Amino acid sequence: MAEKVLMKGNEAIAEAAIAAGCRHYFGYPITPQTEIAAYMAKRMPKIGGVFLQAESEVSAVNMVIGAASAGVRVMTSSSSPGISLKSEGLSYMAGCDLPALIVNVQRGGPGLGGIQPSQSDYFQATRGGGHGDYHMLVLAPNSVQEMAQLTIQGFALAEKYRMPCMLLADGTMGQMMEPVELPDSAPEMAEKPWALTGTGLSRKHNIINSLSLTPDELERWNIDRYARYAKVEADEVMYEEYLTEDADVCVVGYGIAARVARNAVNAARAKGIKAGMFRPITLWPFPKAALNKLATTCRAFISVELSMGQLIEDVELAIRCSRPVTLCNRTGGMIPSPEQVLASIEEAAAKLN
Amino acid sequence: MKSILKREARVTLFAGHYGSGKSTAAIAFAAALRAAFPDEPLALADLDIVNPYFRTTDSAELLRSLGVEMVASDFAGTNVDVPALPGAAYSITERRDVRAVIDVGGDDRGALALGRYVPALKEEGSYDMLAVISPYRPLTRTVADTVEVLREIEAACGLAFTAILNNPALGANSTADSVVAATPYALGVAEAMGIPVAFTMAREDLCDELKKRSSELPAEGLLLPFSHKIAHGGIVNG
Is the ipTM of this complex over 0.90? Predict the structure, then answer.
């Protein structure tokens, strides 16, 4: 039939993962991302893939480690409390230099919190919920189409740099339905000479391990890994700018917050305020240079987020506190309204005069 | 409007695949019933125990303004993510003077909860169960896949579908063309299920054009318009 289909964000992630050639999914249900698991349960058996509902999030993430070690394209998905449980595994994955896609459809926290949307896992995603010196690639889509796109891209990036990649969405993004077009072809799988695929008695065996027996070796691993991270920061930054060229006030937001921000920017422009929007698409690597460059012309920034002030720290760091940055937020499952963001823009603009 | 389904069933149920538009259809149908029967008592029951988010309860205010009594779980739309059925749902089968619309949860899992009301519905013998279908949903793109889902629902709740509600929605990308393009699919499902297409549902702004193109829609079906106000997902438009 028609090329476009009407999908929930969660379904788009699942279908895009399949389109990307992912045939291994290990998970555990939790609202508001359960549709990913439910979709995989229906689809994977029909295409010769593996869907496995583990007995817990901890088991699921360790199964991901196993499958990633064997070199296959693998994913798991969860929501905030479940990601906390998986965080140990994410640290091990980073320590073993394993590529995998981890989806977090955020809900309110801390603790059990609520099932409504939130962006309060920003620190956990970008600073690492697990222990040790490591980073994950963190991708933040703001439409169902982009959820599909970044899912596919996420697998490729994870493999290119041998690191876990997190797709960071929220309950609204996971639940909302939009028309989406899925690609026909999967990105090519990176060569994985390190994978545990059997030596065939023709090569030395590979070892996947995060335990170092000597401190100097562990330090060398860390330094090597950070050299790789530097390359990611140089080459893989993604962001979107909207009406920023002549903007006096710039709203910064990712995911669902950016959609609200965009409406508010339009409303501000209609009132004659030179407002713009900056949307990081990669939260790690954060688009520091681009935002800092914007701060040479834009005189005030507003961080719009569904958290108590997390993204705002990266904004301040990126622009080296050279301009005032204010917070416009809601939490607990509430979403800032375009009117609330507009009021923040007006307030920031008034202070400039 | 008395020609709805060519008979006056007291209870009309909406079931189908997850995300096919059951709640939107139930509300649009309740609004149409109100227009056809301005003085009769009407009730709408939300029996969705699967999805804690998009439900008929989101439209409680609209239903109130139409004078449609809302029967829903106390927990719908809250953080209490439990599969709870409203106690008052039994009133739907008990009060036989009230015309009722029932919004059933998605897929076979959602339809399972309907089972406890089925003996009473069958005994009274005045119901229609509409299969809400869409070829633009990823897991029901073909006639065969759709029929599979519908048969699972019938098996889970113990009621057979009596008619089809064709809902070829593509969100903001819906056009009259995308609606009529779904006609062969709807007729295919209808033939395979052995039941008629009772309705084609479309966004109200497309209905004028669709009326002119009625020859391209399933012949027996009525056009059921729905307003953006009741279509979900329109909270934030980027």
Answer: no
